[in-house]
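ok trying again, last paste got cut off:
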Amino acid sequence: MARTSPPGSPADPPDTASPAPGKAFTRTSKATRASRATRTARTAKAVTAVTAAKVAKAAGAPLVSACLVLVLWWAAARAGVLGAGLVPTPWQTLRAARAMWSDGTLTDDLRASLARAGQGFAAGASAGIALGFLTGHQRRVAALVNPVMSFLRPIPAIALVPLVTAWFGIGEQAKHLLIAYAVFLAVWLYVHDGVARVPADYLRAARALGVPRWRRLTEVLLPAAAPSVVAALRYGAGLAFLALVAAELGGAQSGIAYRLQVDGQFLRTDHMFVGLIELGLLGLLADALISTVGHRLVHWSSGS
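nice, full thing came through this time. structure:
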């Protein structure tokens, strides 16, 4: 006989301990969000750790080099390699820099030199890039221009100081022209070589596909030659500071090279070391800036 439940009583009473569906879903959603937040935090920490490791690795070698140079510098100064007092210690150079900063000499010279180098570099680089693309792309123009450029390149900017001074005086225009001259020749050579090395098949293929001339230049030739342009700007920035020394020795009343000349007359070697370090740091910062910007813009080239 089948067993039946008594009237009025359920056969299987509901489990009063099980939660309602809505509450279970809420707890599950909270657990999921907490788990996602934990994973996101761990990922962020991992990315931060990896970034810090890369920065430390990249800065490790330069820091070691700087420490090694400081140790050798201090040892040479203490040993009196070139005579007593002719090689200042790093601490003496730092004190000289603080004194020059306090009386405003350091900032005034730095401002004047940066203005000259910046304006000369901008003018020379712009003209060098424009002419480099023209001669690198047009062989007939290159046949006319290249001999002239090859004649001018061996003539250094410092050799033109007396002539430029006679023509333009000792004003700022003469200094800008000297710096622009040095930068122009260097940038032209790099850009001309980079444009000339672009495979002709790229342009022929674009022309066969019906691409307009201006698009062939801006979308084929320019991207292919862009790494050479970045290299040209990096090299030109270094030459700008080399030419700055020649320009400021030709009758300036302020500037880093001018201060080097004045301090050299009084054998203030600690002040001279400050000027030399300024020039080196300016060149280093300019190269790092152009390299970083170039790497971001010319991202398709690993060598930029």
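cool. The two ends are 92 Å apart (CA to CA). Residues 119 and 176 are 7 Å apart (CA to CA).
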